[in-house]
Amino acid sequence: MTAKTPDSPAPANARPRDSRLRYLRDSATFSLAILVLIWLVATRYLPFTPLPQGVSAASLSGWAYLATTWLGHYGLLAQLLWLPLGLLGMILPARSARRWLWLPAGILAGSALSALIIDSLVYAQYRFHLNGFMLSMFLNDSNGEIFEFDATTWLLGACTLLGLIALCCGLAYRLSGPAAVKRAHRLPTGKLHALLFLMLLASHIQHIVSDAHHNLQVTREAPAFPLLFPATARDFMEDHGWLDARTAEAAKVHIQNFGAGSLAYPAVPLKQDDDVITSRGVDGQPANILFLVIDSWRADRFTAETMPHLHAALADGLHFPDHISGGNSTRTGFFSLLSGLTANYVTPMENDGLGSVLVNQALQRQWPLGLFSSASFNGVGLDRSLFPKVPDLRLRTLGDSPAMRDRVMTTDWLAWQAQRRQTALQQDAHALKPWLGVLFYDAPHGYSLPRGASTPFQPSATGMDYLTLGPDTDPTPVRNLYPNSLYHLDRQLARVIQDLKEHGEWDNTVLVVTGDHAQEFNDSGKNFWGHNCNFTRYQTQVPLILRGPGIPAGHYGSQLPLPPVTAHYDVVPTLLRHVMGISNPPSDYSMGHDLLRTLDHQPEVDNEWVLSGSYQDFGIIQRDRIYALEGTGGYAVYDGDMNRRQALGEGANPVMKVMETMRRFYPN
């Protein structure tokens, strides 16, 4: 056998393969060079990233998360840019790939960097990232009604884009084209990419652990990174015994005030002026506040037939016939009701540990708090977004069905009331403080009835199975099961009301009676069932009744041609002024309005639009149309029955108002 000499030619079929592998290595090196440019552009997000505060284990983990996410996540974006180039390099002939792919590589990278610069400008202005909806607005804004740029701005933008494309084309030509330099081969390209991937994994693992243990120093950094979807696993960890929810809840209270967060909220300190209070008890003291919130309660299901006790008790209340929830899900709808904010503030409120301004005011005044929920408060993060400053928050109610939990919760509430009254008598009956209560019922959400309960609405299904529902399913049995659950829930509400009356507190208490969101039974004929799947009024319109001292009876705006449109986030400003005596304008702490401003001789609230949110998407709800903004960046315009309407154009003007409202409490 003759030994192969250094001058022996390589097999003919090896050259294309060697060339292709060399192109893949060179183009991977090019992606690392682009990563450096990405990092430079990404420094524009740093002024709007809440950096860790102080010196502690929590803050050190915050710095570690910032470093690993900076390396790993932006490294992932660079790798995603390389992916189509690598695939083309594998498909095209090796010589063609090296000769021509530097041009699309440069155009792709330059365009991506330009998009990142634009996104940083959008984020600085509105605190959300560039998406398909904004792009569609821009492309369809032929008259300049939404965006208005002068010639200098257009020229600067074009020069930036062309300059970045030229720079990236030059880099691609030098690193992966015909003129690829050999010096780049000395870089450990594969090892560097592997390191970036490990940093990405470390980033998500850190977020999982920090989110489960309420480490806000970590979790509040994530929103500033474009295209980042951080991993969470609270329920999984708790189910497997890796997380004690009570311990995490206790830890949360100790880390809530660690420095400046991402929000400037409230915009100015709240001021108290007792002269503005209109709701006082018979003893002249501020009234109590009680929220009766029913999960999945439709506006058309507050009737004497369905809920006889509640309907009779609220006959002298103020009814709002066109009231829209701030969400089509519990997380967003309940949040908007108790915070006075739109749904886009759920995550920053969680991350900053600020909590409901209404609840915080009650805490500052040392009002007793009775916060009860049939479903768990921590299941959808309400403990973080609304109640982070509440010590020993009751997270859940035990029971084997929603109807059972509702009954147990009501019994526990009555026991809490008895204990509160007994404690007050032992201390000083004349110093009895007002109290704030929240009762969140769950039976209609689960279509749940007590065992052996009657079903007055027929024909009625015996249970709800979403997997069996389709466009041709007769909705009547399910539609009747739903009011049957409300009919029996009404008895639990009657217990709460009777207790207030028996102890002389009925006329000293402001009741807020509403739902977190509504429930659809294929009303639109588009095969939508339940909630959290569109923003029609079938899923967002809920009852709202205010009843108590100083609140007039009747139907809101009954003298107007159309009922005024009110929103969940209007409730907190109303209570803060008329019950707690906060004299600030609502814009200092809320997106809502004072629903009782007619007492000050002002016109009724009538919202031009209501911003409603789901877990990822948003809907701008108007009387005649809905702008559905998808979390992935897409958008669509519908009428009230989910029929497509003309995109943007007519009626697009409110969109900019919505975006300005969404950024109200972010620092400039």
TrEMBL record:
Out of the domains of life, which is the source? Bacteria
Q: What are the Sulfatase N-terminal domain coordinates in residue numbering?
A: 288-581
Keyword Protein biosynthesis tagged: no
Query: Locate the Inner membrane protein YejM N-terminal domain: which residues?
Result: 17-271
Q: Where are the transmembrane segments?
A: 23-42, 62-88, 100-126, 151-172, 192-209
Q: Which Gene3D superfamilies match?
A: Alkaline Phosphatase, subunit A
Q: Tell me the protein's name.
A: DUF3413 domain-containing protein
